[in-house]
């Protein structure tokens, strides 16, 4: 019995730290061991017509800035159209877009008459798009002038089906959610770079990614587009790459509670995407991508039950040596630190950085677990709400 508990403890503990502390080094080693690796994107973009699709729901405070930013992009005007896909916005969003369309014929408004969510709005937009390449963006994501050109450059390789840019989350006011999201996101960008070099970047980014229009498949209303599209494209035999030079900027959520809500919704839809679309990927052809998918994404979503299992088995092993006493104390220290951090937030105090990171780790893993639990009990998140501000 003791040997079984020991095995369960070490397996569950390693599974918790693997996505954050083992997988990045393993992936880096695999990239270095490759005889040949995928190079950087070409410096010049191929001639392509591009449709920039902006998802919008009640974005009156943001959409004007986004359109100004989009119209100022360093991309040939004749080859760029800007489609705002409005999910039945009830504020002044649509009027602002109509006014912009009168001044510049590159701008088009497509409106859903009833609110059905982002995926349905994207289906509508892509069906009406004229471009060979479709770039997807959010209304609060501001692009570098050369961002679209950088995204399109990747399609010079005929084997590339989607290209993901680098979304950057700003921390202008030192908010706790923003600074912890920044730590998390730096790791994400690093993993995207390595995955792109070794095979395919796992997942897109709703703020900034592009796909060949003919590879876009109609989405279910409860699909998450920037996770489903890459699964579909890889299953079709194309690659996905990452280009760090294609940059967008936005603020992270101003509270941990808002980030919790966002993560829960994202994981709910992403786990459903894995269940619905991963069976298309055959291990013989897509084993490398499946390895990265489970290492980068899926294992993280199950971190909370793995932590619980590790703590329980660690508690049962306390009498078997000082090592288990030390690990048990470490587990409890992180849990207590997270609780203290939560209380400090409640009292309006800013906690030390280490406590803040502990709290963020547990909150986000709880959100991931609840997102999966929502899926199993039939709760599906289809529409979205605003939690982030615009970086102007």
Could you give a short description of this structure?
Helix content is 53%, strand content 14%.
List the helices and strands and how they pair.
Blueprint: H1 2-33, E1 50-56, H2 63-71, E2 80-86, H3 93-103, E3 107-111, H4 118-128, E4 133-138, E5 142-143, H5 147-153, E6 160-170, H6 176-198, E7 209-212, H7 225-235, E8 239-251, H8 256-277, H9 283-301, H10 303-316, H11 322-346, H12 353-376
Parallel strand pairs: 1-2, 1-4, 2-3, 6-8
Antiparallel strand pairs: 4-7, 5-8, 6-7
Helix pairs in contact: 1-6, 1-9, 1-10, 7-8, 8-12, 11-12
Fold and architecture overview:
The protein is α/β, with parallel strands linked by helices and 392 residues long. The protein has one domain: Alpha-Beta Complex (Spore Coat Polysaccharide Biosynthesis Protein SpsA, Chain A). It has helices at residues 2-33, 63-71, 93-103, 118-128, 147-153, 176-198, 225-235, 256-277, 283-301, 303-316, 322-346, 353-376, and strands at residues 50-56, 80-86, 107-111, 133-138, 142-143, 160-170, 209-212, 239-251. An 8-stranded mixed sheet has the order 3-2-1-4-7-6-8-5, with helices on both faces. Helix 2 (63-71) links the parallel strand 1 and strand 2. Helix 1 (2-33) packs across helix 9 and helix 11 (322-346) crosses helix 12 (353-376). The longest helix is centred in the first third of the chain and has 32 residues, at 2-33.
């Amino acid at each position: 019995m003791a040997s079984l508990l020991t095995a369960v403890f070490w397996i569950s503990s390693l599974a918790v730290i693997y996505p954050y502390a083992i997988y990045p080094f393993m992936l880096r080693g695999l990239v270095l061991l490759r005889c040949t690796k995928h190079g950087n994107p070409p410096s010049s973009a191929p001639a392509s017509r591009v449709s920039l699709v902006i998802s919008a729901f009640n974005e009156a405070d943001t959409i004007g800035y986004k359109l100004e930013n989009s119209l100022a992009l360093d991309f040939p005007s004749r080859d760029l159209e800007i489609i705002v896909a409005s999910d039945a916005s009830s504020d002044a969003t649509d009027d602002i877009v109509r006014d912009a369309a009168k001044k510049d014929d590159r701008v088009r408004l497509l409106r859903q008459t009833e609110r059905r969510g982002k995926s349905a709005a994207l289906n509508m937009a892509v069906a009406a798009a004229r471009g060979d390449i479709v770039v997807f963006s959010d209304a609060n994501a501001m692009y570098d002038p050369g961002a679209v050109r950088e995204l399109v450059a990747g399609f010079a390789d005929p084997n590339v089906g989607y290209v993901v840019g680098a979304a950057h989350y700003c921390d202008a006011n030192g908010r706790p959610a923003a600074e912890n999201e920044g730590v998390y996101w730096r790791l994400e960008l690093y993993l995207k770079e390595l995955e792109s070099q070794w095979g395919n970047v796992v997942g897109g980014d709703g703020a900034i990614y592009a796909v060949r229009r003919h590879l876009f498949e109609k989405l279910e209303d409860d699909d998450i587009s920037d996770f489903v599209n890459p699964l579909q494209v890889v299953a079709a035999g194309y690659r996905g790459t990452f280009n760090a030079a294609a940059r967008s900027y936005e603020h992270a959520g101003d509270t941990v509670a808002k980030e919790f809500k966002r993560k829960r919704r994202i994981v709910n839809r992403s786990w459903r995407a894995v269940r619905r679309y991963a069976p298309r990927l055959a291990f013989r052809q897509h084993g490398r991508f499946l390895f990265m998918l489970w290492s980068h994404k899926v294992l993280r979503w199950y971190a909370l039950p793995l932590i619980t299992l590790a703590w329980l088995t660690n508690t049962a092993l306390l009498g078997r040596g000082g090592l288990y006493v030390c690990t048990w104390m470490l587990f409890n220290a992180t849990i207590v630190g997270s609780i203290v951090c939560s209380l400090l937030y409640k009292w309006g105090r800013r906690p030390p950085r280490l406590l803040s990171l502990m709290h963020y780790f547990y909150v986000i893993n709880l959100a991931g677990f609840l997102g999966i639990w929502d899926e199993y009990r039939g709760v599906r998140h289809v529409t979205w709400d605003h939690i982030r501000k615009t970086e102007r």
